[in-house]
Amino acid sequence: MTALYVILALLAVAAAFWAGRTLGAQQRERLEQQHEQQALERADTIRREAEADALALREQARSETQAAQAAALAQAQAQADRLLAQARETAEEHRTEVAQNLREQRQQLEDRRSQLTEQHLQVQALQGTVSAERLQLEQDRERLEAERQALKAEMAQEREHLSADRQEYRAERDAMNRELERQSRRAEQLDVRGERLDALEERLEKQGRDLAAQAEELQARAAAADARLQEVAALSREEARARILDALDAELEEEKAARIRTAGDLSSKEIARQARSLIAQAIQRSASETSAQLSVSVVPIPSDAMKGRLIGREGRNIRAFEALTGVDLIIDDTPEAVMLSSFNPVRREVARHVLQSLLEDGRIHPTRIEEMVGRAQEDMRTFIHTQGEEAAIEAGVVGLKPGLLQLLGRMYFRSSYGQNVLKHSIQVAHLTGIMAGELGLDAALARRCGLLHDIGKSIDREVEGTHVDIGVSLGTRFGEGTEVIDAIAHHHDPENGETLYSVLVAAADAISAARPGARREELEAYTRRLEALEEIAVSFPGVQQAYAIQAGREVRVIVQPDQVSDAGAVLLARDVAGRIEQDMEYPGQVQVTVVRESRATEVAR
After folding, report:
1. Are 392 and 408 within 8 A, CB to CB?
2. How many CB atoms within 10 Å of residue 418?
3. Which of 314, 366, 376, 411 is the most exposed place for a label (fewest CB within 10 A)?
């Protein structure tokens, strides 16, 4: 119980302590609030007192400021009066000085006005001169406008001509397209016929097997017949052998004659084969380029404005150019280019050099054109001689006289069927030398003959006669040998020549001219020649179809096997070749190939 009392006493003491502590905290909080309220009231009182003091000080300062401003204003007014007086004095002095300067400047302006008046009179005189020149320019402009209208009319006519040519070309192209379509249809028909021939070939093979079986049966029957014949003939074996040998001797005599004829044919074929081999070897070892010459040269110009300078005032420059060079200068609407037209390539080349020199120099007038033409002609003579020397060196020919070298150089500007004659002569020289070396002849002399065989073409446009006659005359004049003159005289008819060199030159000439691309012919003539070749081949009986191939150098003839035999095919090829030689003219040679083919086709079901 005592412990219980003690505990209760302790609890009572703790409760009292806790209550006292809570009461003290509340009292402390109330005291803090009172102190804070008092501080706020004190702060308000101090703020009101400070505002009143500040208002009083502001009023005092305002009154003091107004007094200071009045004093400063009076002082500033006095100082401003003094400065105004000084400024008036300075302004009066400056006005006097400015008036003096103005009088001086007015005098200068008067002097300047008199000078400007004189200059104005001079300007009026210059304006009169300029007006006269302007009138002259207007007249020149009207004249140029008239010339331009004339040129436009000419260009319109040229365009009409070009349009007509274009339409003609389109018509030719349509005709070629129709021909190609016809050839395509022919090819399709040939494919169908080929299939039929395949079926026929299979059928023939089957018949061949049947015939082989029948042949074996016939051999057995022949053996039985021989045995029966010996019994019936009542001949011994030796007597029968003697009779058979006599018959064989007679047959061998015929076979011997046939073999002799065959040997002769083989020898001819061997000779032809060796000749073809020799020519092929010469062609292979001489691979020369070919080039075509035209009658028009195109010269580029820096700009189209240069065309007016080339024409010149009232056309005097172009007239002087054409009169001095002998070449037509064509100026049209082709951008940045003009054309030179002449059938003479030497004059055309001289004109081209003159025109290029004028364009580079920039001074274009008749006197300068005449000077340039003289210089270009002298340069052309040197160029022609150089070309002749280079051609002789390239062909391996030495000892030519200067006159012959000059004539050789002239052939650089000569063409035949579009083929450059100088290049052609060099090529013929190489081919002739190679073939002569293979045959054991003088190769150097052969090259000389080949190089000079067309020397007459260098002046055939200036001298009457054929190039052969002119060439013989030139060779005789320059002291060439008999072989060279004979080759020049007979390179187109070697059968009349006196030496082998004329034959070799004729062969080399034909080889050079017959190379693909060496010579140029018109499309229409080329097409007509191909059609004529096919028409000649088709005109023979038994010919199913014919094709001209390899640019007309071969005719492939397809015959019907049931109408033309193998022997008939040989005869047909010879007849077609003879007909072509008789009725047509063509460069080189034309090979005729006859194709005879039999096919048997059968379908296995």
Report:
1. yes
2. 15
3. 314
CB 564 within 8 A of CB 572: yes
Q: Is the dihedral of CA 532, 538, 540, 543 positive or negative?
A: positive
Main-chain phi, psi angles of 172, to 5 degrees:
-65, -40
Three-class SS state of 600:
strand
Is residue 592 within 8 A of residue 580, CB to CB? The reply is: yes
Bridge pairing between strands 415-416 and 419-420: antiparallel
Task: Print the SS3 string covering 483-544.
Answer: HHHHHHHCCCCHHHCCCHHHHHHHHHHHHHHHCCCCCCCCHHHHHHHHHHHHHHHHCCCCEE
pLDDT in tens, 200-228: 778 778 877 888 788 787 777 767 766 66
The answer to whether 586 and 552 have CB atoms below 8 angstroms apart is yes
User: Which positions ≥6 away from 321 have C-beta within 8 Å?
Assistant: 310, 327, 329, 351, 354, 355, 369
**What is the C-alpha separation between 281 and 85, in angstroms, rounded?**
128
Of all helices (H) and strands (E), which one includes residue 591?
strand 591-595
Distance CA 120, CA 82 (A): 55
- pLDDT, tens digit, for every residue of 136-175? 888 888 888 888 888 888 888 888 888 887 888 788 888 8
Q: Enumerate residues 6+ apart whose C-beta is below 8 A from 508.
A: 282, 427, 428, 429, 431, 432, 435, 450
What is the model's pLDDT at position 233?
Answer: 61
Q: What is each CA distance from 507 to 199, 326, 447, 470, 520, in whole angstroms?
A: 47, 39, 13, 21, 20
Measure CA 480 to chain center. Answer: 44
- CB contact at 8 A, 546 and 558: yes
- Please report the DSSP string for 417-434 in residue order: TTEEHHHHHHHHHHHHHH
Task: Answer for the pair 418, 520: CB distance below 8 angstroms, yes or no.
Answer: yes
Helices (H) and strands (E) in the chain, counts: 14, 8
pLDDT of residue 198: 78
Range 112-145 burial, b when 16+ CB lie within 10 A, else e: eeeeeeeeeeeeeeeeeeeeeeeeeeeeeeeeee
The predicted-structure confidence for 552-581, as pLDDT tens digits, reads as follows: 778 889 898 888 888 788 888 888 988 988
Residue with tokens 């190089």: 451
8-state DSSP, 416: E
Residue 338, both tokens? 């003009």
Backbone dihedral angles phi then psi of residue 399, each to the nearest 5 degrees: 80, 15
Q: What is the mean predicted confidence (pLDDT) over 120-129? A: 76
441-484 tens-digit pLDDT:
898 998 999 998 888 888 877 788 888 889 889 889 988 888 98
Helix/strand/coil for 21:
helix
CA distance 72 to 80: 12
